[in-house]
Structures are given as structure tokens and as C-alpha cells.
Amino acid sequence: MDKKPLIPVHPELRAYLAGHGREVKLPLHYQDLERFSASVPLLDLNDNDTLWQTVYFDEHERAAIYDGLGKIYALLRMDGDMSATQHLEVARIDYCLFGNTRPFRIRIINRLNDNYDHFYVKRTDANRIYGLELEELLSPNNVLYLLDGDTLIEEHIAGIPGDDFFDTKLEDTTFNQIRMAKEFVKFNERCFVRLLGDMRAYNYVVDITPDIEGSQFRFRAIDFDQQSYEGRKSFYLPQYFKENNPIIFLGIEHMANATVRQYQLEERSMIAARIKASPRRIRELLGIMSRDEISKREFIYQLRDELGQHHDSTSFRGLQTMGEVLRVHLQLLLAKEFTQSADFLESGNG
Questions:
Q1: Is the per-residue pLDDT at 341 higher than 50?
Q2: Which of 185, 189, 278, 330 has minimal Cβ neighbours within 10 Å of its Cβ?
Q3: 108-165 pLDDT tens trace
Q4: N-term to C-term CA, the chain
Q5: Cβ contact 10:321 at 8 Å
Q6: Global pTM value
Q7: SS3 category, 60
């Protein structure tokens, strides 16, 4: 697969983001961090290369950059209250050459208690922003991010990377294994319903919460670059990536087809409820997305044909944008069980 290009943010989308508090004036931008003067490979606890580089700045620039990053953290986490920045310290700045948006990861430490947090500074990409918004609106997860010009700020989403989880956590009680498989089915359904692609094991994390009996598991996407971009239907179904085979085999071992179907319908029901809870905002976003050019023409045509076959429907004929494809896909998926939400989506044009 060719590396996806960065898609510019359309003015209509930018106005939507400003109206919902996502676009703010930042004290520092992505280009400022590109002025680092040195870097060294970042190794993990076992001395393995993480594919990140820790970067360093010349002394005459360091103070201003660190001050700006502290203020960005206050904007992201503390609604712009700058009084706490006096206790914050930038502990490390890491840079990843292999990410599509070439992110910088900032480690912030609170000097009062030595607790640390991370956030990311990235280049903007329209697909990613649509993905973040749909995550906020259609998933059980809240996401924090801010935008200013060509700079995107994202919170760190905590959890165990999927590939590490498969290597270390699958050997568990049968009860917990069933819960793991159940949550992956629901995650798989969420990705397909909202057309979030490329959910290989390293593009999501697993959040584990101890419970009265066993543990609760939640699969959370951390990479949104492939929101409604590629043309293959299977690209939007995590079950088809070989990297996810360990959890797929666990599901085959523990769940019957009827059980899988039940969990798929449960997740669709929750998505339908979220659509009804935020109708105006979702209609506005889908309207803007339907008028935006966020993919190649051949990808749009391929996906609309494959989804038409999947749904055995002619509703995709003539669609010209990925936003239109997503809206019809949502209508058809939800109409099978949840007519009210599907009717609502059909009626809105943004």
C-alpha cells in the first residue's frame, strides 16, 4: 500500500471545528519543532529500537519551545488555565519518521508529584480529523485534540498496544478470554460502521480495567489517518488483517456465530443511540464530509461498488465522495435494525 498523502483541511471543515471549540490559537506550531539540532534513537526497557528519536534543541531556542509546549498542554488538558504551567516541565520530546503525520510526542511532568503525561504535535490531515470527530461522536470514547493552521495537537490515548497485548495478555482465564473476544467483535463493528481503516494490531490499544470478577477490556483506535480513504471494503474490517489473528482465533474458539451477531447488533444499537443524542452535529459533519475531497476517485468508485454488493443495494450508484459513501453505508447498516436513526441520516444534508 502506498503511503497516504496528507489531505488539506477544507475551509468548511475548519469553520465546523472552530464552531465546536477545536480550533484555537496555539503558542507553538509543528514547524517550530522541526528546528531540532540533534537526535538519538529511543530504546525501550529491553534496549530495542522503538523507531522514535529523542530530539534536542539549541540552548537559545529551548526555553521558548518548552514554554510553548507547556501552554499547549494547558490548552489541551486544563481548558487554557495557564496558572498550572509553573509546575509543568517538558521531560522529553520524541520524533517519529515513520508516522504519516511525522508526529512529535511530548512528555510533560508535573513537578509537584512527578506524575507524567504525553501529547502529540502533528501535521494536519483531513482524514485524520474526520476520524477523530467520528470517534468522539460514534464511539464510547472521548478524544481531546486541537487545531491551528497546519498543526494538530492530540492527547495520548493510554493502553497496551494491540500487538503487545497479544504477546503478553491472551493467556488468561476463559472468562476473560471471552470478554476479550467480545470486545474485539464490537471494535470490529465500530470500525466498519464508520469506515475507519487499517486497524492492524499496532494501530489500536487495549485498555484493561479490573472488575468484580475478571477484567473489562476496551479496544481503542489510536490512528485515524485511514478514515474513509482506501477503496477495499475489507480494509475497514480489522478481522481481515493477519496481525489480528490471535484475537480472531480466540473468538472462533469461544463464540458461536449467533453470539457474534448479538454483539454486532449491540454495538449498532449503541451507535444509533449516539446518533440520536447528537443529531445536529453528526448531520453537520456528514454534510461537510459529503462535499469534501478526501480520497482518490478510483478508491471512491471501488468502495461504493464493493459496499453496494455487500448491502445488495443500488443506493451507492453515482456517489462521488467518501462522505456520501459513508452516509449511505450508515443508513443501510442502521436501517436493518434501527429505522429511526437511518431515517434521520437520510434527511440531513448538513
A1: no
A2: 278
A3: 998 888 899 999 999 999 999 999 999 999 999 999 999 999 999 999 999 999 999 9
A4: 33
A5: no
A6: 0.93
A7: helix
Would you list the domain boundaries of the chain?
11-155, 160-347
Q: What is the pLDDT of residue 293?
A: 97
Can you read off the three cell numbers belonging to residue 218? 476496551
Helix ranges (DSSP H) in the chain: 11-19, 30-33, 59-77, 126-138, 162-168, 174-194, 245-254, 257-277, 279-290, 297-311, 322-335, 339-347
Residue carrying C-alpha cell 503525520: 101
Nearest to 164 by CA among 207, 219, 201: 201
Distance set, CA 283 to CA 4, 7, 44, 288, 321 (Å): 27, 22, 44, 9, 16
49's grid cell? 529500537
Please determine, for residue 246, whether its predicted confidence score (pLDDT) is greater than 80.
yes
Separation of alpha carbons 26 and 279, rounded Å:
30
Question: Does residue 349 carry a pLDDT above 70?
Answer: no
Q: Which residue has the higher pLDDT, 78 or 291?
A: 291
CA 172 centroid distance within chain: 28
